[in-house]
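Q: Convert this sequence to structure tokens.
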Amino acid sequence: MIEIKTYRGHIRNWEALSKELQTDVSGMTREERELVILTKAYEVWGRHMADHLYGMFALALWDDEAQELFCLRDQFGTKPFYYYQTKDGKLLYGTYIRDILNQPGFVKELNIDMLQIYLTLTYVAGEDTFFKGIKKLMPGHYLVYKNQELQITRYWKPEFHPDESKTLEEWADEIHDTVKQMFSEIKTEDETAESFLSGGVDSSYVLAMSDAKCADSCGYDEERFDESRIAAKTAELLGVTHAVCNIQPEQYFSIVPYVMYHMEQPLGDASAIVFTIACNETAKHTKLCYSGEGADEFFGGYNMYRNAERYGEELKNFYVGNTNIMKEEEKQKILKSYRPEVQPIQLVKYIYDETEGLDPLTKMSDVDIQIWLEGDIYLNVDKMSTAAGLEIRMPLTDRRIFDIASRLPSKYKVNEEQNKIAFRTAAAKVLPEEIAFRKKLGFIVPIRIWLADEKYHQDVRAKFNSDMAAQFFNTDAINAIFDDYINGNSDQWRKVWTIYTFLVWYEEYFVRR
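A:
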């Protein structure tokens, strides 16, 4: 007997699987049919079941015949999975850390080493968490627990095999045809979805390919940060209604504790707060929404990727992912506990070993696919959407999309003038060139302006001077960073925000609870 103990996700190819597995799922709800299909998939394919699944998933099932627990996380880590082994050998697990915290045998203790990693990356990377002993099952891995012993196996990893035989237009056709296939599977006819829309090509392409009748954007009073005006033109062009949530700084700062609680780990990505507000507003009029994550990392979307060749072999000495805001020397100055052997670069050494001999752009992309996406982007999407009661599906995050990116030569990803070349060329089949080839802005937030205003940063200042902060930081040193920012060095805002979000999270989980 197979019993699904916990599961969160969405299996895109459920219809093909039901036929292949000869499983009748007619008349069932989505949740019911996916549980039936997953059970049957394990019965037929066992530990290799993920090779046959397309979608987002994290699950644990009990195999009564083998007397073992099988836990599985999808290839890209779009859904989280955590586990903890107690002193007496019992395994605690779940798709939320909170599933574990209140169980008998769990001992709550801060993993102080993670703070060193966090201050550089602004997110929790790798298998460890801020809770000592609670680990993440990493993307592309499964876990077997039997007789109080754990066995963790990596069943999938990104691999890259550039194919120089095809033209740019041929690659664009393959991308476009595959995206079409994603949208034939992403939802059923009885489901109604909306779509998040920024000023960028990814969300615009997703909206253009979907049957969504409404697009949802965030805006600001500060015009130079506000992409909603551009998004409005895209929505009008595509003939969909456009809902805009205009975010005010008071609203932004007041929701930070809510975000850190539901995130379960601190996250210093300022856009996460905006995304939370967007999810809460969007959930008022739909329960299903599309989002465009994945394409930047797969197809060379970040402007910094254009420097890849210049970095060359030096990458493996410093590139730890999309963010790198604090050097070791500075962390030594501000932290009361600093261990030189705890280095962010150690988290990605295995990736550079795996990509030995490949070009620098591929190495950068692979670090971001394996570290940044899992630790920041997908975590944010999952935690804040589920907290709002909103389901988000990401059609561009799929093994079949990645398969194209893994074969696409770097010259069709970035050049000196443009990024995401082949992907934009595909998008231009359904979007005007002015949208498909618009310069990437990023999901920017006016936080660098707001944070300098005394009306909004009072809690930041209070926490920087608190007894709580003094446990971890030399408070004079972190206040010096804050003062430097207030006095005009706007580049310091990320450091201030990363320290602040850790303190807010710590208060939520170790002071108030």
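Residues 448-511 form one domain.
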